[in-house]
Amino acid sequence: MTNGGVEGLVIKNYGGFYYVQDAKDIYECKLRGKIKQAVLTGDKVIFTPLEQGHGILETVQPRRNELIRPRIANVDLLLIIMANNKPAPSLSLLDSLLVNASYNGLIPYIILNKIDLPEDENAAIISRYYPQKGFNLIKSSVRNHIGIDSIQEVINNHIAVLAGPSGTGKSSLLNLLVEGASIRTQDISEKIGRGRHTTRHVELYPLNSGGWIADTPGFSVLNPPDIESRQLAWHFPDFQEFSNQCRFGDCLHYREKDCAVKEAVCENIIAEFRYRNYVTLLEELIKNERCYR
Length: 293
Ligand SMILES: Nc1nc2c(ncn2[C@@H]2O[C@H](COP(=O)(O)OP(=O)(O)OP(=O)(O)O)[C@@H](O)[C@H]2O)c(=O)[nH]1
Ligand SMILES: [Mg+2]
Ligand SMILES: [Zn+2]
Hints:
Blueprint: E1 6-14, E2 17-21, E3 26-31, E4 44-49, E5 54-60, E6 66-67, E7 72-73, E8 77-83, H1 91-104, E9 107-113, H2 121-129, E10 136-139, H3 148-155, E11 159-163, H4 170-177, E12 203-206, E13 212-215, H5 240-243, H6 260-266, H7 272-292
Parallel strand pairs: 3-5, 8-9, 8-11, 9-10, 11-13
Antiparallel strand pairs: 1-2, 1-4, 2-3, 4-5, 6-7, 12-13
Helix pairs in contact: 1-7
This protein binds guanosine-5'-triphosphate, magnesium ion and zinc ion.
Zinc ion is lined by residues 246, 251, 253, 256, 259-261.
């Protein structure tokens, strides 16, 4: 212990306590009265250990980033879990999660889970398009233990957040990666073909193989992040090589003439669904700019 206390990581905020992990143990901490800012899961903090696993959280170190949903700080990786089938992957959710990752400075990994099941049409599109455009893709089956070591390698020494629709296997993956975790999983409702939301609060779990992972509410709807409409295309790396060839320097790749991005869509170099998802997000951002400025 130094004068200023011990360094630790907030792994959970629950019932008015902050659970802080140091090199060895977990401490149940209360906040030192003078702390005004919110303390988040993922915060690196200085704390004073007391007896019997208690402690006082003294200060919060500067954050690398801060996600709003889930509310968590200092995340390195976004693992976007889509199912190969059951439920069929949503390409629009995938693209908005990829934009969110880019906006927040997270490295995204697309994880196509349940490859033990027959491949859905959209899953085939994901495997074909994204890796070719430089996105990271891992195919896995939590059920048959396929691809799990690749996921462990990627998480090693990092903080990772799982995202993706309900029922894709996020909690099942976590249970496999984290010894002793027993997060509730649930069979997807065959009737409606959609998963039920079974996960509640945000907690970081240590991987036996190194690194940390958070389980999140299995969100299927996502607000667009606070991006300016003219910056949205920056978050579509597959548009980059074309966007500086448009006639207008400030081209939104929307209604403009002589747009090289739109030409690339016509030539099938940029997938049409990607472009459509771009336009949907763009229109939403433009609408919000009109309403709130
Ligand atoms: N066939 C198959 N089923 C899987 C696989 N991984 C998970 N499942 C099943 O898919 C269902 C949903 O898994 P969960 O882990 O609860 O999904 P989740 O993403 O945590 O869902 P929410 O908590 O609702 O967001 C469960 O019945 C799992 O057993 C897999 O690789 N293959
Ligand atoms: Mg879950
Ligand atoms: Zn353009």
